[in-house]
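Private note to self, pasted from the team thread so I don't lose it. Backbone tokens:
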């Protein structure tokens, strides 16, 4: 369909953004043949694109305009950070690392405590089962551990989304993990992946939600369409109503009419941008950008919260090949590509999945009085927090059943300090084989913002994640990376690493040049956090689901305050962060939101 033909129609529901959440809503709402759904997506359709499909080729998309929005933050303590966000049909589910994890029970029950009935752990559990299809793996130690702790009765079997480390963690004192679907995920294991094993293909929103339903006459999807604003009017009762959406295709402007609702699914960056461009937001922000205010809603774009990671790259013995063995040999790369294209096998057919979750008692068993330590750091940095979110998160961080960090191990080296260019993050010239071991935050207290600085929709918004501005984040990240470093001295991982004359693992040269040593003290770990903090690409919160007076942008039905028929459904509505990779929760949130909308018809 051409842009002109799309604009001539009117749709009951116009979905702004054909990403992870947007395509879930499009599929579910268009199940009713009497309902019309139109989707506007700025990126293109990359179905059957090998860079998207091959689970282990995702790094080849980073920094490429055809796939990536290529966002940049304002300067942080260790430089400007590059933010990868999927610019394609399927959004970031088409460009992520394929890792699939689960929020804890308390993560989601926090949402209810903050005033969002119907969004607790038990409320969302059926929606996790609805969208997933679990495939058990076999034959390796990791698989045996996974198959022990994964309870098939807690997992979906019919949904559209497919899905030396574990032993080292067990030897380090980690418990045998339970299925995260029970509400807790402490332990080390091989993470589930969003990969369809039948075809060895990435399982993502465009493949599983759009493609099977593309034939529906009541569903229209327009790609290459940049939304410029929502058309808003005030009715006689001074209620703000969305009448349609304006968008641009190749520089030509169009407007399409909405009969019932406009649902914004642009993600944590684009959703607040679209609201502000439309006149919904802070008077001060909109005034400086030259946008006429329609709805006073100062929390739009605020409460930005992200997971951060801190990692070391250490040398692996030559007899244990890592990613370098492949990347430095063009002939091997060609063979690997041929193996994937012809047989769906080889190194590109799966993604790395070694991970784990560690509580504060595991990370630092010698820390005296963890509660007093956390409360001291919490009180030392007072922030405006009318909803009381930081107090909720602090209670979680001291709970031995809750994780303070997600541990990772990636069989490749990196230039961890190159935070501005994600495409070159895993590129280095150090000879030998290398392994990344790292710790990722689970519930950061530092909060930033995303706001427009211009009325021009093609101009990127100002992104300030405020990394490590809260002292508790710095403290827990330092303790976490010190803990992860200790795993390098636990068998069987210990025997795989090259050691220096002091018996310490050898740190990659590009990190040593920044003054990084293999950390053995909390002070050395803090130095590493200072230099090598990177994003985990899990931003949330800029259109938070909270009471309006406590900093909310949407209510528990995802409706934007001050409007009659505008909703936001994506990770931007998360009121607090959750542990691990967030794509699973985005799917569950969208499935729940779809049912809410259907019930209101």
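Design output:
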């Amino acid at each position: 369909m051409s842009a002109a033909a799309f604009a001539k129609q009117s749709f009951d529901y116009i979905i702004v953004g054909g990403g992870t959440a947007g395509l879930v809503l499009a599929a579910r709402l268009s199940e009713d043949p009497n309902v019309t759904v139109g989707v506007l997506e700025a990126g293109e359709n990359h179905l059957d694109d090998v860079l998207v499909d091959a689970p282990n080729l995702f790094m080849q998309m980073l920094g490429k305009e055809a796939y990536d929005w290529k966002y940049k933050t304002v300067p942080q303590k260790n430089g400007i950070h590059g933010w990868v966000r999927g610019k394609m049909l399927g959004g970031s589910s088409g460009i992520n690392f394929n890792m699939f994890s689960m929020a804890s029970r308390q993560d989601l029950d926090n949402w209810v405590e903050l005033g969002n009935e119907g969004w607790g752990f038990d409320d969302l559990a059926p929606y996790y089962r609805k969208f997933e299809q679990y495939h058990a793996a076999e034959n390796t130690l990791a698989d045996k551990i996974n198959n022990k702790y994964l309870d098939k009765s807690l997992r979906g079997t019919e949904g559209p989304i497919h899905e030396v480390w574990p032993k080292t963690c067990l030897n380090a004192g980690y418990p045998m993990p339970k299925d995260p679907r029970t509400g807790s995920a402490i332990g080390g294991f091989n993470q589930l992946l969003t990969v369809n094993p039948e075809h060895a293909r990435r399982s993502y929103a465009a493949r599983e939600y759009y493609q099977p339903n593309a034939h529906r006459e009541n569903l229209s999807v327009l790609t290459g369409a940049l939304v410029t604003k929502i058309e808003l009017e005030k009715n006689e009762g001074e209620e703000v109503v969305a009448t349609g959406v304006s968008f641009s295709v190749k520089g030509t402007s169009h407007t399409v009419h909405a009969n019932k609702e406009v649902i914004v699914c642009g993600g944590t960056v684009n959703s607040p941008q679209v609201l502000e461009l439309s006149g919904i937001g802070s008077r001060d922000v909109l005034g400086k950008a030259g946008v006429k205010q329609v709805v006073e809603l100062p929390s739009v774009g605020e409460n930005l919260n992200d997971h951060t990671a801190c990692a070391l790259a250490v040398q692996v013995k030559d007899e244990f090949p890592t990613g370098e063995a492949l990347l430095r040999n063009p002939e091997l790369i060609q063979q690997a590509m041929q193996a994937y294209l012809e047989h769906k096998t080889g190194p590109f057919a799966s993604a790395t999945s070694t991970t784990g979750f560690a509580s504060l008692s595991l990370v630092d068993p010698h820390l005296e009085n963890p509660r007093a330590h956390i409360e001291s750091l919490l009180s030392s940095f007072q922030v405006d927090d009318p909803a009381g979110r930081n107090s909720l998160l602090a209670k979680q961080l001291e709970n031995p059943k809750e994780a303070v960090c997600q541990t990772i191990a990636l069989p490749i080296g990196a230039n961890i300090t190159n935070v501005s260019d994600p495409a070159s993050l895993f590129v280095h010239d150090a000879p030998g084989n290398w392994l990344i071991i790292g710790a990722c935050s689970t519930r950061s207290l530092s909060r930033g913002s995303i706001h427009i600085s211009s009325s021009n929709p093609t101009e990127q918004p100002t992104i300030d994640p405020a990394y490590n501005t809260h002292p508790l984040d710095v403290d827990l990240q330092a303790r976490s990376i010190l803990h992860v470093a200790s795993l390098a001295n636990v068998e069987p991982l210990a025997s795989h690493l090259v050691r220096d004359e002091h018996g310490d693992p050898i740190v990659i040269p590009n990190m040593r040049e920044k003054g990084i040593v293999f950390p053995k003290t909390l002070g050395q770990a803090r130095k590493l956090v200072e230099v090598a903090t990177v994003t985990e690409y899990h931003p949330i919160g800029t259109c938070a689901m909270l009471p309006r007076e406590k900093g909310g942008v949407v209510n528990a039905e995802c409706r934007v305050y001050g409007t009659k028929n505008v909703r936001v459904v994506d990770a931007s509505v998360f009121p607090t962060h959750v542990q691990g990779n967030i794509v699973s929760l985005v799917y569950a949130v969208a499935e729940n939101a779809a049912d809410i909308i259907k019930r209101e018809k």
